[in-house]
Amino acid sequence: xxxxxxxxxxxxxxxxxxxxxxxxxxxxxxxxxxxxxxxxxxxxxxxxxxxxxxxxxxxxxxxxxxxxxxxxxxxxxxxxxxxxxxxxxxxxxxxxxxxxxxxxxxxxxxxxxxxxxxxxxxxxxxxxxxxxxxxxxxxxxxxxxxxxxxxxxxxxxxxxxxxxxxxxxxxxxxxxxxxxxxxxxxxxxxxxxxxxxxxxxxxxxxxxxxxxxxxxxxxxxxxxxxxxxxxxxxxxxxxxxxxxxxxxxxxxxxxxxxxxxxxxxxxxxxxxxxxxxxxxxxxxxxxxxxxxxxxxxxxxxxxxxxxxxxxxxxxxxxxxxxxxxxxxxxxxxxxxxxxxxxxxxxxxxxx
Length: 351
Prior knowledge:
By secondary structure, the chain is of the alpha/beta class. The protein has helices at 20-30, 36-47, 60-63, 69-95, 118-126, 144-158, 183-191, 244-262, 280-291, 298-307, 314-323, and strands spanning 5-12, 16-19, 53-56, 104-109, 133-138, 163-170, 195-202, 211-219, 227-232, 235-240, 270-275, 332-339, 343-350. The protein has 2 domains: 5-202, Thiolase/Chalcone synthase (Peroxisomal Thiolase, Chain A, domain 1, 3-Layer(aba) Sandwich), CATH 3.40.47; 211-350, Thiolase/Chalcone synthase (Peroxisomal Thiolase, Chain A, domain 1, 3-Layer(aba) Sandwich). 39% of the residues lie in helices and 25% in strands.
């Protein structure tokens, strides 16, 4: 049986963008009533976040305007439909697939609430088949891009000759809390941006692209309050424990080595690291851990710099960079992301 393959990865950015330098005056205006020391600390946080630019589904002035959860979620719902349709249509065109050839559609998002979920709208917009199987992946945060790949792999391994589209669309700016002066809100505002990505996968015998060798999840015990959102009357309020990088470092060997060993390989044999850029500190922590093994995550750092952390979609932006290279046959890639749960998601690829 041929293994499921990743045929194409496409990305799509929303219409608004600002450099960090352009956002800082808005941040200073927002923090006007706060004490000066705190204001300086937050500005420094933005300047040192290793994010040069970020994109958004709404104008920056709109982000910093006090509106209701309903208003922000209405913008989220409207804009993610547009981004989702565009990224899926472009991916299908580039792969030479017609929309009606899709057997499954997975949509990933955690930064707003939509019922029916995004996939229902994509079925209508692109004219997918009436019997297409849909699966919305929600509430899994930054890890969900890889979660979606794991679910897609499971579907395709059980069903030869099928095609699947995984569409991740996120808008962390829609969750920004104007009246929350906690460090969790400051850090998330400094690192997050909006974006969409689509991955096309196939279990057809003639499909071209890297094969998914395996995919697994790893759940940290009693760590549900490390990362996530609290739903308040003002919207989705960020939970972010400063101990996240340290917790990752502690569990890192048991996340990486048994998974690779089970697949008859080891970290030395892995040529390409496709790691989710959670934020500067997480990137630095993982960079040191992989660096000690003679590996780099330069593409991860570069995606963070260019776009910020776009939650579930970001790791797919890193993957897209590898898909656009001529990688020799037989080389291995390890995809890795962390998210609410607290959990790690891993996928092993072979070109």
